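General statements about sequence and structure are easier to judge against a single worked case. Part of our work consisted of pairing the sequence of a single chain with a tokenised description of its backbone. The amino acid sequence and the backbone structure tokens for this protein are reproduced below.

***
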Amino acid sequence: MVDLAAPVPVLAAGGIADGRGLAAALALGAAGALVGTRFHATAEALVDPPTAQAILQGRGENTERSRVLDIARGSRWPPKYTARTLGHPYLDQWRGREAELAAHPTAREDYQHDVAQGNIPPLPPWAGEAIDLITDLPSAAELVATLAAQAEHALNRAGKH
């Protein structure tokens, strides 16, 4: 992709949650990396504490791509870009029945009612497959410093071989 996009800078994305992943992206020519889920597990993240804990306890195999939560929430997100999330009651209820959910006359109201009642989290627990690499809740500043140090170490080590 870097070669095809040149001279436009390319950011790597997907599965990057530590400095080794960042170093790999840089070694392949990316100008930087989009680090998503890892920043949801920081002290400043704008996620509910139960979502942060779910990320810490979750595993890559606990995530799935689906449109269910976008449909239930009435999101205008383009349908071809599915969201990867951790488990959610609405996924269990509507998995594989997206067309039925979209046509359901009260689905959005039911979803909002469940959020208001505290039965489900206000936002889907978005999380990628790199979740296996997330084991703590540092500050964002600490995370950036750690990512940079790990990437520098990995790049230096790779340069010696």
Q: What stands out?
A: The mean pLDDT is 94. Residues 140-159 form the longest helix (20 residues). The radius of gyration is 18 Å.
